[in-house]
Design goal:
Layout (H helix, E strand, L loop, with lengths): L2 E6 L6 H13 L2 E7 L10 H11 L6 E6 L3 H7 L4 E5 L3 H17 L4 E5 L10 H9 L10 H11 L1
The structure holds adenosine-5'-diphosphate.
The site of adenosine-5'-diphosphate has 16 residues, from helix 1 and strand 4.
Length: 158
């Protein structure tokens, strides 16, 4: 039974995140998507909203569960019995930060693997910041996020 976690801010979840999740469920038995409660970032959405959007967007994926954590990702991985951490790599620009994190996490616990997955090319330019900015200026976000997220962004920005 191979369980992995996919940690992130998900502020909000985008189709790029969903693409990574689909790839991970093809490879592993169970995936726990875990929302960082107190990220260093200033979030647009509360932890509760971020969880709600993930739960709704992933309700048709029986191998996926959603939770939240604060503190170290490796500690949370151990708590939920995960053998690895899934991260998405969009471009070279992601690499340096992700590489540092992966090495630090391996130093903290060498049994917890970091697994990198690449999304479809159509998502390589997509991130939550771009989606928030687009929504703020009344752009159409529907190609980039699940319907529940488009709805919540509309509620925020009108
Ligand atoms: P962001 O980097 O957009 O703030 P998160 O902190 O929620 O998003 O990211 C969680 C993980 O998902 C990271 O490994 C990040 O590289 C990955 N990720 C984010 N957006 C995408 C995307 N469009 N395609 C693939 N991976 C992504």
């Amino acid at each position: 039974m191979k369980r992995v976690i996919y940690p992130g801010t998900f502020d909000p979840v985008t189709n790029g995140h969903i693409d990574i999740i689909k790839r991970a469920v093809d490879l592993f038995d169970e995936l726990v998507v875990t929302v960082a409660k107190n990220p260093t970032k200033n979030c647009l959405f509360s932890t509760e909203d971020r969880l709600t959007m993930l739960k709704e967007s992933l309700k048709d994926y029986p191998k996926v569960s959603i939770d939240s954590h604060d503190g170290l990702v490796v500690e949370h991985a151990k708590e939920v019995g995960a053998m690895g951490i899934i991260r998405g790599l969009r471009a070279i620009s992601d690499f340096e930060y992700e590489f540092q994190m992966a090495l630090m996490n391996r130093k903290l616990d060498e049994d917890i693997r970091t697994i990198f997955l690449m999304p479809h090319e159509r998502y390589t330019y997509l991130n939550s910041t771009i989606v928030r900015n687009l929504a703020q200026f009344k752009g159409d976000v529907s190609d980039f996020v699940p319907p529940i997220v488009a709805k919540k962004l509309k509620e925020k920005y009108g």
